[in-house]
Design brief:
The complex is a heterotetramer, with 2 copies of chain A and 2 copies of chain B. Chain A is α+β, with helices and mostly antiparallel strands. Chain A contains 17 helices and 22 strands. Chain B contains no helices and 16 strands. Classes of the chains: A alpha+beta, B mainly beta.
């Protein structure tokens, strides 16, 4: 087993990994940029080394510097967390070349799954579906018609150079097809200067279902069931749950076996996630492999009882997965809500700044993986994720109530957060019924707007606070006369005594 | 006593009267009886007609951040124009500022440049999000207060404009 | 199902119960004494009603007042928590007479299990052992010798009027017996004015093992396995774990079935705990039934996935336990540490007072059931329990590391707590090996003393804080000139602006 | 610079010297190099010879409460007798105080009573624990500062004694 691991990351995931290391008796080396000199993750490290200025390029993305400090500290392995260098095959290779274990897939598998075309080909070879459609530009109307009939309506026409919805047309029947192609071509031409379009099956009301897989260096592979991550804002997952309300036992087993096939075909090692799109007719299509520990990994841990980060370390150290597929089971229901520093009342604008007051949720079935503390100045340089609120309960109904109550008691003051927005999602009928898909937030915009009535109690509170200043002073004894006298602390160090 | 607060460009008024067992509050056309008021360091709680409310708060120099049932509100004392209360300096109408603090990654204009409405004046990046700041109207760049690579605060003028020469 | 429940308690257990109610969609009514006007549990209540001045007798033990406010609020049920009126059969009866459901056992069963002699008789009738020995005062030497031979040495001579170890003598062989009886009688006479002594089997290195049982009003009964609570200070449990390292599957099943027999014999309903003493030869002896939700109930919840407070409410509402014994299983390992306001460096003296800073442990596998908040003045009138730190992990070794790390990050400043003491227990070889019993703390006193070396870093920190005052001001921007100017808040309400 | 602190009736001295990249601290006979010092509102962290330490702290008017690895320490600036530093008023030698705040449940003596060493002078109860306060030596009760049922603070004289008449 490793004696010392360097964690090439920051925030909540760096703390998550540090905890797993310490529980294995492994010493941890943390790294920090200029902006992170006072960051919370350093409080969980046995050593802390500076890696560059505040920009991600100069620090957390700086491969040679990170390899250097790992050598300097004598770390035998590096855990990359998620984001930054986690899926960078050059980094994995640099680790391999420096005889430092990269806690993640081998660099060859990492390259393969990072290449969209190569990974789609690999997946198809083992009989797992991808979204059917043209592999390149459509030639003529006949070609489009044939393909549309082959994959079945509805289909979608997309600009080859496209992105952001420009040149896209959903087509529900053959009689609309020709006109849609022409419209798509016109729009593509004007947006990208290239009229090329192609066609694929349109997955209606798609649900994002992913499977957690573990594979060791001895060829043992198991899946740890699914996570549903269909609640997304701007393609960013914000709420995840497991089990998915959309799949049953039979489909779960089928998709789980498909995910294992994908991982085996890629000769992938360590923890990985196979992402699928699921439609309303039980069809599922491979999307991609996420070659890292996922932000949403805790919900799998809550229902299976398996510590995924610990498994990552054990697998990287060459240990065998001793349990068989049949040894794993889902118990109860887990939901994660990602807490971001952003303002839902102002177009989700990022909101760095000082945390004046912090009271994180706690209690039965509640897990908080947090990277923040009261008094900390959230820097503007990195991802806005602050922490993750995860709940477990005996069933989905209780889990939703539990996370909703926990959000009510998750208090971060001084910056804007999405806590209230997350709670509003939990309270929608659609979410409660499990009847949602990846367009949920767009389609339920009006139900997610903050209710105006809440302001009444806030204003009354503000008025009471303003009026009650004197009684506070006496009631709670904050400002007694003793505190304005000279005290030994002042004589010693000149502290400004400022009780509150 | 009357208390006036600003919240998201709106001004709200609360009338508060001390009574024997608490307070009477008036908001819009309704009256509320408030009892069992408790104020702690960062918490205030009270009962309105039998229902209990707990609100967390933290104060900055000019703002009160409050949280109720997970919803955040930032409340300021209302700017009282007739009195001598000092206003907080904010951006002027003919300047452009970022709605979020962040890194000034692009600043394609310089003092003296003529710009049309909609021209990108600056790009500010924070937490992996880029925000483009555009000219609200035609004009001439009067002053540029930062340079590329600077860290800028929210609501601080980055570029100041003046009307085009012809309008002067 | 109940629509409204009154919680006749305070602190962490009142919050625990409130959460369970809210998750069932039940409205909660809290109560408070004068000392608890600003207590944290009220923040979790939909209504809060005053029940008396600060003394427990006037408030939380005031049966008629509590019944009155329950009626006034229209509560259909009362949850008593633990302590206070939880095991008071008069209270249970008063509830029954007022047509308010008492969430606990029926008053008849409560009376029975509260009566030591009656419960021992009941238990013996169904074939469960009690500690063998005399049922009354020893008559003469012959009587003592006969009984000692019958139960086997070692035996213990105890004062009939006794308590606190006075008049107690452990006897290892017959040749010491006569002298020990005489010595015990002399000591009993001088301590209690009554020389009567009796004899029972001395259980050496006893372990405290208890079984959680649930029984509904339809006669269904299940046990949810054991909790080991042998780490005690002055007969107060401070650390509990499950599974117990002392019992195996066969003994677990046997003791579990014995516990169910006891509960059935007492016609007990709702959640109850059957306590046993276990010796080194797999003998176990019934001690008593705890007729309430236990402080340590969370560890059972962590390994079984069953929400015990929810079950209490459901059973009280007449619901059936739908699962059979075979449906329950223990998964992983859980440990609880009770956080008390007391000073281990000063004979565990209680330490009420203001909490100046609070940062509670959190993260994977960590649950905190807390009743405190930063800024709160812990009142001196009630039990010193502040919160409970509970961890779950895949196995015992990881669970111990996890709770040890969590204790390191459980920060309560301004009052004294036992956090460091609990951590020292976790770090002893004996505890790590599971080799302990109820005398653990006395026998390991020297290993539990705080190491002197820790002070070095604290003193360096204090010196650095005193020397660095100026750089703090600028580095972290706490005290800018703007803050000493007049601000709108001051003009509005005269607040003392005091940023920190 | 030299810093002196009191902790549990002991006085400790730390010498601190500012250096280019941090500090040098001397404690007893050892020297420590301190780098990467960070101080936040309630946290201080630094590196000593490669090892990182994080300590939480909170200040009262005369005490600094600190937590390291779960262990709590209460540190006070040392009482400097030669300087003009004002001492904190504590119980005098011939008075009896409670080591914990609590309720004064029994006070069986009155001014003028003769007491022997070991006589119970008061019983203070807090958090379900009773603490008996006994006379440290023979004497006469000079003054009783509270009555039964009063709430008393820690280290505040409850009963004041004077030597028995014969010794005067």
């Amino acid at each position: 087993m490793f004696k010392k691991i360097l964690i090439a990351n920051r925030g909540e995931i760096a703390i998550r990994v540090a905890r797993a290391c310490k529980e294995l008796g492994i010493s941890v080396v943390g790294v920090f940029s200029d902006a992170d000199r006072d960051s919370y993750h350093l409080h969980y490290m046995d050593e802390a080394l500076w890696i560059g200025d505040s920009s991600p390029q100069a620090s957390y993305l700086n491969i040679s510097k990170i390899i250097d400090v790992a050598k300097q500290a004598g770390a035998e392995a590096i855990h990359p967390g998620y984001g930054f260098l986690a899926e960078n095959s050059n980094f994995a290779q640099a680790c391999e070349e420096s005889n430092i274990a990269f806690i993640g897939p081998n660099s060859k598998a990492l390259s393969l799954v990072g290449d969209k075309v190569a990974s789609r080909n690999t997946v198809q070879k083992v009989g797992v579906s991808i979204i059917p459609g043209m592999q390149g530009v459509g030639r003529d109307t006949k070609h489009f018609k044939e393909m549309a009939n082959k994959v079945g309506y509805p289909v979608i026409v997309k600009a080859s150079m496209g992105g952001g919805g420009k040149g896209m047309r959903v087509v529900y029947s053959e009689k609309e097809l020709e006109a849609s192609i022409a419209a798509g071509q016109r729009e593509a031409k004007s947006a990208f200067g290239d009229a090329s379009v192609y066609l694929e099956k349109y997955v209606e009301k798609p649900r994002h279902i992913e499977f957690q897989v573990l594979r060791d260096h001895h060829g043992n592979v198991v899946h740890l069931f699914e996570r549903e991550c269909s609640i997304q804002r701007r393609h960013q997952k914000i709420i995840e749950e497991t089990p998915s309300p959309a799949i049953d036992e039979a489909l779960r087993n089928e998709m789980g076996e498909a995910a294992k096939k994908v991982i085996e075909a890629a000769e992938y090692t360590n923890a990985g996630t196979v992402e699928f799109l699921l439609d309303g007719q039980r069809n599922y299509y491979f999307l991609e492999v996420n070659a890292r520990v996922q932000v949403e990994h805790p919900i799998t841990e809550m229902v299976t009882g398996v510590d995924l980060v610990r498994q990552q370390i054990l697998i990287a150290a060459g240990k065998k997965i001793s349990n068989k597929q049949k040894d794993f089971a889902q118990r109860g229901h887990a939901i994660e809500a990602r807490i971001y520093a952003e303002d839902p009342e102002n177009d989700f604008m990022p909101s760095p700044g000082r945390i004046l007051y912090l009271n994180e949720a706690s209690g039965p079935g509640i897990r908080v993986d947090s990277g923040i503390y009261q008094g900390w100045n959230v820097p503007p340089h990195y991802d806005p994720i602050l922490s993750k609120l995860v709940v477990w309960a005996e069933n989905r109904e209780i889990a939703i109530r539990r996370i909703s109550n926990a959000l009510s008691n998750y208090v971060i003051l001084g910056i804007k957060t999405n806590v209230g927005f997350l709670k509003r999602i939990m309270e929608t009928k659609k979410f409660r019924e499990g009847d949602y898909h990846t367009h949920f937030i767009d389609e339920n915009e009006s139900a997610l707007i903050r209710q105006k009535e809440k302001i009444r109690n806030v204003l009354i509170a503000a008025a009471l606070l303003a009026s009650e200043k004197n009684s506070i002073m006496t009631q709670t004894g904050y400002a007694t006369s003793a505190q304005v006298e000279t005290t030994p602390w002042q004589e010693l160090g000149g502290w400004e005594i400022c009780k509150h | 006593m009357e208390y006036r607060f600003d919240h998201l460009n709106e001004t709200f008024t609360i009338h508060l009267t001390k009574e024997k067992n608490g307070f009477r509050a008036r908001f819009r056309d309704d009256e509320y009886r408030i009892s069992d008021l408790e104020i702690q360091e960062n918490m205030i709680s009270f009962t309105i007609h039998g229902e209990r409310f707990a609100i967390y708060f933290a104060r900055d120099k000019d703002k009160n951040y409050m949280s109720i049932d997970g919803e955040l509100f930032t409340i300021k004392p209302a700017q009282i124009s007739k009195s001598g209360a000092r206003g907080i300096s904010t951006q002027s109408d003919n300047s452009v500022a970022s709605p979020m603090p962040g890194l000034l990654v692009k600043l394609p204009v310089a003092a003296g440049d003529k710009v049309e409405a909609g021209t990108t004046l600056a790009i500010v990046e924070a937490m992996k999000m880029q925000n483009e700041l555009r000219a609200p109207s035609d004009g001439v760049v009067k002053k540029v207060n930062f340079k590329e690579g600077d860290q800028v605060d929210a609501f601080v003028a980055i570029v100041e404009l003046e009307p085009p020469a012809s309008e002067k």
